[in-house]
Write a structure and sequence with these properties.
Blueprint: H1 3-14, H2 37-58, H3 72-88, H4 92-113, H5 118-134, H6 143-161, H7 165-187, H8 192-215, H9 224-230
Signal peptide: 1-22
Keywords: Signal
């Protein structure tokens, strides 16, 4: 995986980090303190999550052993960037450089050991504990909610990529969950028309909430893993 692929994720996410006020921007002569151990660990974990996020987008099999990095990994990344700006006085561009430099370390380790995930795998366990502490998993969604979530995810990816492999996978998941949700709703006494209304209303509500969060530079914190489990054979 090239550094440019990682940069394609790091740069857009870093742009979500709110910069410091103009009066607080460090001058060219301002000496910036080195990062603390805690801050260095945050940067390493954020870069590791970005690395896995790229692999998950590309469908790399080894990345499936980790939780989905969307949206919790992204939220962790943005939160770390915001803290670094506030705590260290660095600019957004300087924070972006920290993330990119750490990603380069992972890339070099991968080349040296001929193992694309050697450096990332070594730190992911403690980093995932950190992720759970910083961005707790949301309550598991219901089957109808999962059907709506996956339908929206498919539509978003299809709009960006067309019928790519990732879009096809999401379409399959969305179809399976939609069928199971309708079966469940009918078993609860709802007619086919009522099931249509319930699922349509739920999808519209989730889309509205997602749009509101997007306007704030955030992503919905859905538990995708729970939805994947509900779609299993």
């Amino acid at each position: 995986m090239s550094l440019s692929a990682l940069s394609s994720i790091i740069l857009p996410i870093t742009m979500l980090v709110q910069p410091a006020a103009a009066s607080e921007e460090p001058s060219a002569t301002t000496e910036i303190a080195p990062l603390t151990l805690e801050q260095k660990t945050d940067v390493r974990c954020a870069a590791a999550f970005a690395t896995i996020a790229v692999q998950q987008q590309r469908g790399v099999p080894s990345s499936a052993s980790y939780p989905s990095m969307e949206p919790r990994g992204r939220e962790f990344f943005v939160d770390v960037g915001a803290r670094l700006i506030e705590e260290t006085g660095r600019s957004r561009e300087q924070v972006q450089a920290l993330f990119t430099a750490e990603a380069e370390v992972f890339q070099k380790a991968a080349r040296d050991k001929d193992d694309p995930n050697s450096a990332v795998d070594a730190i992911m366990t403690p980093c995932l504990f950190r992720l759970d502490a910083e961005v707790p998993r949301p309550p598991p969604p219901s089957l109808p909610q999962c059907a709506a979530i996956m339908a929206l995810a498919y539509e978003e990816v299809f709009a960006e990529e067309g019928l790519s492999p990732r879009a096809r996978d999401l379409k399959t998941l969305a179809t399976v969950l939609d069928n199971r949700a309708r079966t469940k709703l009918r078993a609860e006494g709802n007619s086919g028309t009522e099931a249509d209304v319930i699922l349509g209303t739920l999808k519209a509500k989730l889309a509205e909430e997602a749009s509101a969060l997007e306007a704030q530079g955030k992503s919905p914190n859905y538990d995708y893993e729970a939805c994947y489990e509900l779609a299993e054979p």
